[in-house]
Protein 1
Amino acid sequence: MFDLDRFVQDCTAALDDASPEMATREIVAAAVSDPADLMRAIGEPERGGIYTLHNSDRLTVLNLVWGPEMVLMPHDHRMWASIGIYTGREVNVFWRRGADGLEQLGRKEMSERDANWLGATAIHSVTNPLSRLTGALHVYGGDFFGTPRSEWDAETLEESPYDVAKARRLFDESNQRLDSGQRR
Ligand SMILES: [Fe+2]
């Protein structure tokens, strides 16, 4: 049975591993291997949002619920991340800084039970391609909320400091779409 305290303990122990991003990827993969069991512990997604399960200087664990068809512009984290999907689907587009600004590197689609890790310099944009909520377990090797980082405009690809209020607005808008979809 999934136990959040044990999960955080395991991830904390993995911070001392030579490759903590790969070690935590294994822990995340095990957690999302049984989505029903995980959701009994953390709840089934009901609204889009960033739900903090654990936050310290060295480790952040989030339950990230993407709204229907939600798109999050390119951004970085400045710390490694391990991501696992427990319901729905997430499309990641990876980018890098090039001579003429941001360049697309590749694309990776993640479905239920998939887990993946991202290096500290990774830049990605995320789309939920489904008309329902997607739920993902995210583990970060640092203080996700206290670390300054960048985002890039979805259209112009211009870099600016990450705007937490804007991100919250995107989740709010996705929840409004969710509400109007349910009313239809
Ligand atoms: Fe991200």
Protein 2
Amino acid sequence: MADHFDLIVLGGGPGGYVAAIRAAQLKLKVALVERVHLGGICLNWGCIPTKSLLRSAEVYHEMQNAEAYGLTSFKPDFDLDRIIARSREVAARLASGVKTLLRKNKVEVISGVGQLTSNHQMLVTTAEGEEKAFEAKDIIIATGARARQLPNVRADGKHIWTYHHALKPPEMPKKLLVIGSGAIGVEFASFYADFGAEVSIVEHAPQILPMEDAEVSAYVAKAFAKRGIRILTQSALQNLTPDDEGVTAEISGADGKVVKERFSHAIVAIGVVANVEDIGLDKLGVELNRGFIAVDGFGRTNVKMCGRSGMSLVHLALPIRPAIRV
Ligand SMILES: Cc1cc2nc3c(=O)[nH]c(=O)nc-3n(C[C@H](O)[C@H](O)[C@H](O)COP(=O)(O)OP(=O)(O)OC[C@H]3O[C@@H](n4cnc5c(N)ncnc54)[C@H](O)[C@@H]3O)c2cc1C
């Protein structure tokens, strides 16, 4: 017999765990299914660890400019391994706080990969390969998103990185190409530039931070230029070829001319794709819209639950605000 809940939440990121806790506070019997890490991308590989890295960069910058504050000059140095270790510790501490919050609110955490088998059933496969079925009146899908990859070349963590690799780099890049200038791209550009990398940003749009107001973008662009970060707007990456030493990028500018340039590393920061595969959506007939789950104004899918509302989708589609030093 399958365990029965009022609500099952699939995915333990900020979308999922907050919804689970709130539902439990409203007296529902709630289970949360998570395959790798409570806290999702935000706490483990997103918002939190990036802010820790940026704080290290900020402190380093202040120390380099200590004389400006009347402090006796000295030459600061950095240890990349320790900067990363701190960022991982901060992420782990906050993620473990989520575990405590869920326990305190009596949300049952089920570890494993969840897949919908009907509009009120979920099959969970544990890391050991065991399968268990669960039932619920309502289900919230909060499976989040992952880094979008370039069409022709995969980020393998060697010389081409996604945010995941860039948060735990094997070495400090000497000459870095950041592809895409949304919040994630500019945060990494800022971090690596502060620690001495020669950074270029390539962006399709006429401005960096294309989702932000023109004034904000212009302000950041000016500050970046002052810090030696090269910005190539209205430019497109045509090709990226990795080899043992680094990557060769072919970049077309506003005039259409293609220029080839070598970089030691590249970070692909061209957005995210939703985690909608292999969770049973197709079998249930859940509609998608451009790769994301289609929902109504209440976040409900087209599939009805046990004669009630549709399955809900929680996805934090809020724009990310970069936390860079300008
Ligand atoms: C580098 C970076 C920096 C960022 N900085 C910020 C910031 O400063 N501010 C901000 O607001 N946002 C930031 N974001 C965005 C933020 O991380 C996301 O908006 C947020 O994580 C989305 O939450 P979510 O719960 O929808 O998905 P996620 O956090 O992606 O969580 C989804 C969870 O579902 C789990 N899951 C998926 N499929 C299954 C399955 N079949 N079975 C079980 N579990 C499953 C995943 O393992 C994951 O834990 C950043 C993102 C990145 C990558």
